[in-house]
Design brief:
Layout: E1 2-5, E2 25-26, H1 31-39, E3 42-44
Antiparallel strand pairs: 1-2, 1-3
Length: 57
């Protein structure tokens, strides 16, 4: 899961003991994170996908 905290919220990652970065990070799905989503403390985001490179001919 790729999550980021809601603006103005500090959400600690129980695996690291550190707050989630404001731009988000990848976390292991768990009851903790599902509860944070349900409570509105974090938002699930889609990681930015890079466009496939095309070879110039």
């Amino acid at each position: 899961m790729h999550l980021k905290p809601q603006p103005g919220r500090v959400v600690t990652d129980p695996a690291t003991g550190l707050p989630l970065p404001q731009d988000g990070c990848l976390v292991e799905p768990s009851q903790y994170w599902f509860r944070r989503l349900q409570d509105g403390d974090v938002t699930e985001i889609k990681p930015k996908q890079q466009k496939p490179r095309t070879s110039a001919k």
